[in-house]
Amino acid sequence: YVPIATIALSFDTYVIVPAIASFAGAIGFLVFHVVVGFIYIAHWNCMNSDPGFVPAGWGNELQQNEDPDLEAPTERKARYCAKCRNERPDRAHHCKQCKKCIVHMDHHCPWMNNCVGLHNRKLFIVFLMYATLGCGIVAFCMLSTFFEQFSTEDGSVFLIVVYLVDVVLVLMIGGLLAFQLKMVYLNQTTLEVLAQSDPVYDRGWYENYQFVCGADLMYWPLPWRYGAPRSSPIMEAPEHSALFEDHANTLTVQSP
After folding, report:
1. What does the pLDDT look like over 76-92, one tens digit per residue?
2. Are the beta carbons of 107 and 93 closer than 8 angstroms?
3. Residue of 109, 115, 135, 213 with catalytic role
4. Which of 41, 45, 39, 48 is nearest to 4 (CA)?
5. From CA 114, how far away is CA 56, in angstroms rounded?
6. How far apart are the first and last CA of the chain?
7. CB-based contacts of 91: which residues, under 8 Å, 6+ apart?
8. How far apart are CA 130 and CA 175, in angstroms?
9. Catalytic: 109?
10. CA pair distance 101, 190, nearest whole angstrom
11. pLDDT tens digits, 30-68
């Protein structure tokens, strides 16, 4: 929160406030602070959301129909987590930090202090999108200010450092955003890419994005809505279905 707030405050001081009296300045103030607000909302919701924890006892109904004298098929063995001592769906992985299995686990994110999985991956991508957009606006609009401060002896060292940090964030977060968008395009996760797995779940780019972000395109950019947990194999569990409100077939993040 601190780096974004520091960058936003510096941008307000040197660019937005001096021009706020004009119509363009007022529009710029409104747009920029909406973007900043969306950054914080997306981060908060992703940090506090359920990424798709596999509930205890998931798959027990399958075990009840099995003959205990028969050895479990190979594909069933591959879906059993010895650490959780629980069945898990295909593409679920165990997180050492969360100590649980997550459906379509992408990675454990230190920025979020949470895992990124099928249930909250869209929120993570939206956070990256608005963070890249906000820092990109600052990098573009403060470029001349940066050179003015850099070329004078009494230039603000603080502002120069803030601008350079902003440029680094644009490159880092923008690169991560591009990587995530490419993986969603192929219906892959970070763990699958690191394992050098082929994109065997590819359904075509549009269906892949619907699988992660939801069926309704107009809700994709909103930082307070989950993506497509209806695609999740564990949504029948009461502890997961209770996380959502269904209004006109949309899913809204509920505060923990």
Report:
1. 444 788 888 888 888 89
2. no
3. 109
4. 39
5. 19
6. 20
7. 103, 104, 189, 192, 201
8. 13
9. yes
10. 15
11. 999 999 999 999 999 999 988 888 888 776 654 554 444
